[in-house]
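Posting this for the archive.
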Amino acid sequence: MKDGIKIAIIGSGSTYTPELMEGFINHKDDLPLKELYLMDIDDRKLNIVGGLAQRMVKFAGLDTKVVLTKDLDEALKGCSFVCAQIRVGKLPARVKDEKIPLKYGLLGQETNGIGGMFKGLRTIPVILDICKRMEKLCPDAWLINFSNPSGMIAEAVLNNSPIKMIGLCNVPINSIDGIKKQMNLPNAFVEYLGLNHLAWITKIEDNGKDYLQEAIDAGLESSNMKNIPTLGFSHELVQTVGAIPTSYLNYYYHKDKMVEKCLKAEKCRGEVCMEIEEQLLKIYENSEQHTKPELLSKRGGARYSEVAINLIDAIYNDRNNIQVVNILNHGAIPWMDDNDAVEISAIVGKDGAKPIPTTYRNKNIEELVHTMKEYEKHAVKAAMTGSVKEALHALMVNPLVFDYDKAYDCFFELLEAHKEYLPLFKDARKVEE
């Protein structure tokens, strides 16, 4: 592998891909990238984004073969790393996930609530199929997944596939660095734990002292993400929780207000992303464009490339540094099961990510995480089997739904809207036999 590596990006028509390209270019001395296979099923986006990727590599002077392909097997064969950033149904499916639930007074969101579950139902079978092909074509490769919902996908893959897999998100790095900056503790160890898009900062340790309570007393918040219409967390709320919530907890701690905010929005986030995507694709089409455009920062993926490249670099070069990833718990959080996929601080090296054990206890957090983990497990079973009962069970557990009548009617409307991408549910009826 030290002679040069092959990496595949599955879903490379994503407008995020230039972020990754910039990362590979910036780490050219640490990652000898011999072959880069860009795979997508969308001809237009593959050619436009792939064309820019090829120009970026050429402009940077890298001796890297960049291949555009629609053939998944060709992309996977002989890989060392496989980066998955797929969106089954593309952005129009996201718009449905966001807008249909609002008709029922439920949150419409990409990864949370019933909309988030449907993204998981569409995505998990496709990711597991990629894993099966990896078993034949690159069994020793690492699957680095950025596809959402990242935590639910990690739960599915890590418990149902032998493939080495780590899930990623850009929320942790932004949250952690935001707290370090506010506390003026650039070298602190910041403990981060929970589930993907349901996580808290639970320790800020520097020179043997934990500054968490000082941060809570000061009313500090983690950095907000541009793609979340946040309301913020009051001093009283943070004091009550006893840890610093990350941005997605706005959907849980301010559920009704967030639904109201989404209902009043002129456009849902998916519609905004569609507009930004078209603007980006027009920029990417320019044959003179050979760098990542500034507009990409508005897409909501701040530092996404940095997180991905840091992980690949740490595994390839055995860095043994600390990163936040989605992996199996393996006893690190004592109040979670060993085979629960969690989002946690870990030491990353050539053997993957080893979670850093925590002694943190907080009943408020424990109870919510347990509830959401049960939701994830039922949703994963539904995605793998096409069981309506498992899907409805998941929704009845999820605190962002928790209303049978709304869940039932909304579920079947979303099922009809996404039936093209949910073949396992093709025989589903309003009363399951």
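The mean pLDDT is 94. The CA atoms of residues 139 and 250 lie 40 Å apart.
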